[in-house]
């Protein structure tokens, strides 16, 4: 998929690797100047260096002052911010337990990044976009925000919050020229999911086939398949989609696959 993003400026959080990097790469290859941001600056630099349109900044989405500084630097350098992709997120590997055993500190850690961090980033970016009366905010949610999964109470709660926050932002910002949409990926093959499911030593590799049995395509998604969805939402020609959650899950949430 190709679109014309020449002259635009994008910021992708958590873009040193995985889905974030895939999205940032797609935006850059289609002409946008893309700020790759991540907690680890060296990794953001490495990712951004792969494209002439890439620039790197350190960013912790749990620190509002750092968010304000990054947005200020981008607008000082470029005079605009056209696309924000809220991708930064965390889950838990060590605490796959029922809610009565789920640690409060782990709940706070996950919501601080996955929901509050997205709120803080959107707040800062929306102020710039509203002033210019144009912009796109793309929030990376999860099918776990649409259909609850077991033993992931904090992640499920955070991503459900992202889904409805996306819709609320769309209502608030649409009249100001800012379109807000989200993507709900299904299981996607990344470094993180290899550690959990798809690697030979994955923590839950024994259950991965049970999960894939409910995906009509029979496999996890790829990073680039999620990135294509983000590029579609960023495309200037896609100008009437607002408040939508684009589900990219191989049909997982369409219902259980059947052999009859």
From TrEMBL:
UniProt protein name: Short-chain dehydrogenase
UniProt-listed CDD domains: SDR_c
InterPro entries the UniProt entry points to: NAD(P)-bd_dom_sf, SDR, SDR_fam
Family statement drawn from the similarity comment of this UniProt entry: Belongs to the short-chain dehydrogenases/reductases (SDR) family.
SUPFAM superfamilies membership: NAD(P)-binding Rossmann-fold domains
UniProt cross-references to PANTHER family, sorted A to Z: 3-OXOACYL-(ACYL-CARRIER-PROTEIN) REDUCTASE, 3-OXOACYL-[ACYL-CARRIER-PROTEIN] REDUCTASE FABG
């Amino acid at each position: 998929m190709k679109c014309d993003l020449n002259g635009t400026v994008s910021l992708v959080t958590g873009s040193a690797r995985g889905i974030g990097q895939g999205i940032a790469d797609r935006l850059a290859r289609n002409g946008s100047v893309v700020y790759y941001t991540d907690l680890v600056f060296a990794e953001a630099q490495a990712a951004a260096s792969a494209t002439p349109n890439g620039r790197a900044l350190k960013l912790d989405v749990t620190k509002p002052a750092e968010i304000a500084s990054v947005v200020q630097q981008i607008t000082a350098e470029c005079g605009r911010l056209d696309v924000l992709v809220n991708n930064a997120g965390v889950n838990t590997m060590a605490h796959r337990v029922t809610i009565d055993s789920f640690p409060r500190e782990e709940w706070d850690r996950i919501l601080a990044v996955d929901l509050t961090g997205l709120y803080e980033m959107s707040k800062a970016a929306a102020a710039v976009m509203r002033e210019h009366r144009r912009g796109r905010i793309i929030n990376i949610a999860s099918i776990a925000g649409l259909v609850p999964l077991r033993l992931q109470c904090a992640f499920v709660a955070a991503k459900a919050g992202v889904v409805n926050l996306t819709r609320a932002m769309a209502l608030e910002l649409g009249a100001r020229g800012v379109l807000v949409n989200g993507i709900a990926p299904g299981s996607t093959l990344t470094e993180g999911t290899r550690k959990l499911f798809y690697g030979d030593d994955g923590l839950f590799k024994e259950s991965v086939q049970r999960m894939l049995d409910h995906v009509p395509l029979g496999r996890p998604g790829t990073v680039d398949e999620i990135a294509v969805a983000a590029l579609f939402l960023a495309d200037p020609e896609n100008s009437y989609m607002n408040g939508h959650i684009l589900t990219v899950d191989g049909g997982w949430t369409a219902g259980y696959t059947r052999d009859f």
